[in-house]
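If your schedule permits, I should be very grateful for your opinion on a structural question. I would ask you to consider whether the tokens describe a fold that such a sequence might reasonably adopt. Thank you for your consideration; the sequence and its tokens are set out here.
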Amino acid sequence: MAGEVKTGPQTVAFHRNRCHITPIPENIFQKTYENNPQSCDYVNFDLSSSCFVGLKCKLSAYGRSKDGKTNCKQVVLALMVNSQGYPFKWDVFAGNMLEIHTIEKIIKACAHRFKLQDISMVFDRGLVAEGVLSLINERGD
């Protein structure tokens, strides 16, 4: 029996009695990078917030809402895509996490998790602030 089962943030691939767990982001990144390494010369990064209705999500919190809904808890969604538009890194952060802290986590992931050293990051003007630019320059050395 061979197949694949998707569970949460990872995929479990199995063949007969053997089971191998492959995290989805690493698998997607590896496949796209093998086919075209230049697709990661520059990466696009964006953040969004999503209003959260419910009581049990530990990440939901009041924060700076991008859509003006200040009266509801939210989560912050982060997405990175390569130059071909393939997503390879995504995160869900606490609703009150500052944007500069999301950038720091993304830069660390690029350097350590995906081994990307010499890349250009593309993001919208909402993320351009002196603190963010300083952080990128510090981590880029």
Remarks:
- The chain has a mean pLDDT of 75.
- Strands lie at 2-7, 10-15, 18-23, 42-51, 74-81, 87-94, 120-122.
- The two ends are 49 Å apart (CA to CA).
- Residues 40-139 form one domain.
